[in-house]
Amino acid sequence: MEHSVVYFLLLLNPHIAEKFRFVFLAVLVTIILTTISFIVTRKLETIPKGKQNVFELIISGLLDFMNDVMGHESKRFFPLIGSLALFILTSNLLGLIPGFDSPTGNINTTASCAIVVFFATHYYGFKAHGIKYIKHFTGPIGWLAPLMIPIELVSHIVRPVSLSIRLFGNIFGGHLVLASFAALVPLIVPLPMMVMEIFVAFVQTIVFIMLSMIYISLSVEEAH
C-alpha cells in the first residue's frame, strides 16, 4: 500500500519505511502471536474454556492434520510446522486490514520460511539416518548415482524456490486485485473479493505446511 500504517508507526522517511516495512510487519506478527500465546498459556485449566478452549481446538485440529500427512511421529515436528502455520496464516490475513500489508506478500519473507524448511528437512534427515541419509540422493542402484545425485540436488534446491514463489505470488497478486477493486468500485463490491482472499489465505497456508510436511517425511523415511 502506498500509505501504510508502518510509515506512521516507524516515524521514518517514507523511503526508509518502504524498504523495511515488511521486516517490521513480520516482527509485528511474531509479537502478536507471542503475546497471544503468553495470554492463553498463563493460566491453563484442566477443563479448558474460553480462549484456552479455542486455541486447544486449533492445536488439536492442526495435530490431526499433521497425523494424516506424517503419521504417528508428527508430534515431534509440531513446533516447526505449527509455528509456520500460525505465522503464515496471520501474515496472510494481516494484509486484509486497511493500512497494513501482508509480510508474505514480500518474497524475502516467504523465502525465509522456505529456507527454514529446507534446512530443517535435511537436519531431520541426517538426524534420522546419519551419513546413510546420502542414499536419498544416490538412487536405488549404485551405478546410477552419478546421474541421480545431480538430479536429486537440483530437485531439493528447487523446493524452497517453489515454496516461496507460490506463497508470495498468490498473496501479493490477491491483495493487488483487491486493492484495485477497492479503488475503482464502491466498498460493498469488493466484499466478495475479501471473502475470497480469506479463503486463499487459509489455502496457501495449508499448501505451504503440507508440502513442508511431505518433504520432512520423505527425508526421515528409509531410502529405497
TrEMBL record:
It is found in: Cell membrane; Membrane. This is ATP synthase subunit a. GO terms for biological process: proton motive force-driven plasma membrane ATP synthesis. HAMAP family: ATP_synth_a_bact. GO terms for molecular function: proton-transporting ATP synthase activity, rotational mechanism. Coiled coil: none annotated. It comes from Candidatus Schekmanbacteria bacterium RBG_16_38_10. SUPFAM superfamilies: F1F0 ATP synthase subunit A. One of its GO terms (cellular component) is plasma membrane. It is a multi-pass membrane protein. Belongs to the ATPase A chain family.
